[in-house]
Amino acid sequence: MSRVTLSRYLIEQTRSHNTPADLRFLIEVVARACKAISHQVSKGALGGVLGSMETENVQGEVQKKLDVLSNEILLEANEWGGHLAGMASEEMDNAYQIPGRYPKGAYLLVFDPLDGSSNIDVNVSVGTIFSVLRCPDRNGECGDLGEEAFLQPGTEQVAAGYAIYGPQTMLLLTLGNGVKGFTLDRELGSFVLTHDDIRVPETTQEFAINMSNQRHWEAPVQRYVGELLAGETGPLEKNYNMRWIASMVADVHRILTRGGLFMYPRDSREPEKPGKLRLMYEANPMSFIIEQAGGAATNGSQRILDIQPTSLHQRVAVFLGSKEEVERVTAYHQE
Ligand code: AHG
Ligand code: MN
Ligand code: MN
């Protein structure tokens, strides 16, 4: 059987689901940028890409060289094609304006250029997360895009995906009708469809959380994780296994592959910030993918995709993965 490349998949989506040609182009360009990032990541010390910059991003995190490089690769790949009205990124304080010399398009691209930065220097999987929104109708005005244009709930996403740079480089993609997984064939330079119709099992015996923050968690999370740890002698009457990679892409990828629950709850360390992960370019795209694969994603009290964002870099608590466990921990928050 002939292999289905990402290009062929996208063209077939246009035929079967009317995927617009400019959205198809957008996804191809993002995928090309991810190949370039994958190439840089794989060079490691030989390419001089490890280590940190002297700069901080808007979150006050020290930027790694690869955070900045990946951001530049995505901007350069996407600014000239005429498919975007603007971009926003973890690594930029404000919305990125498409330079005046290029045409503008109908879409907004939001990304975490390099997720799992703390794993770069230790040769553990990292990734790129992206979300695609439509640019709201601005009455034909093409002036500078403000932050407001991006502040749409996750339900408005027209596409989302991530690339994972691990033992294999893969691209996981949803256009709103299921989740497809593509593996990079480095000899051909193409993403090839290898994982058709990815589904998250509804039940699981595996969870992911940074246990070192336990003393800061709120009561419902204390209760729930306590029950997970109690295993078959506790109220849940089964033993659970734990994984924590500290790259959201890698933890989510495991869940898409074999099920599980991922948690980054809000905690009392920085009470004014609800959790660590960012809504627009981490939680929303991942929640869209997880839901499209039959899983669920909440912030403890609300479906993540329904949250109305109020700022570009806002944070959110995240519980996502196998439906049964997400529902359980969400119910504990509601009790
Ligand atoms: P980023 O590298 O884009 O800042 O994201 C890191 C995130 C996420 O990938 C991961 O789940 C989490 O931070 C790990 O945080 P801890 O170090 O607190 O475990
Ligand atoms: Mn991240
Ligand atoms: Mn990042």
Identify the CATH homologous superfamily of the largest domain.
Fructose-1,6-Bisphosphatase, subunit A, domain 1
The count of DSSP E runs of length 2 or more, i.e. the number of strands, is: 15
User: Termini distance?
Assistant: 53 Å
Q: What ligands are attached or bound here?
A: 2,5-anhydro-1,6-di-O-phosphono-D-glucitol, manganese (II) ion
CATH architecture of the largest domain: 2-Layer Sandwich
What's the structural domain tally?
2
Describe this structure in words.
The protein has 335 residues and is α+β, with helices and mostly antiparallel strands. The protein has two domains: 190 residues, Fructose-1,6-Bisphosphatase, subunit A, domain 1 (Fructose-1,6-Bisphosphatase, Chain A, domain 1), CATH 3.30.540.10; 129 residues, 3-Layer(aba) Sandwich (D-Maltodextrin-Binding Protein, domain 2), CATH 3.40.190. 29% of the residues lie in helices and 23% in strands. The strands form three sheets. Strands 4-3-5-6-7-8-9-10 form an eight-stranded mixed β-sheet, sandwiched between helices. A five-stranded mixed β-sheet has the order 12-11-13-15-14, sandwiched between helices. The protein has a two-stranded antiparallel sheet with strand order 1-2. A hairpin with a 3-residue loop joins strand 7 and strand 8. Helix 1 runs antiparallel to helix 2 and helix 4 packs across helix 7. The N and C termini lie far apart (53 Å). GO terms for molecular function: fructose 1,6-bisphosphate 1-phosphatase activity; magnesium ion binding. Keywords: Carbohydrate metabolism, Cytoplasm, Hydrolase, Magnesium, Metal-binding. Its cofactor is Mg(2+).
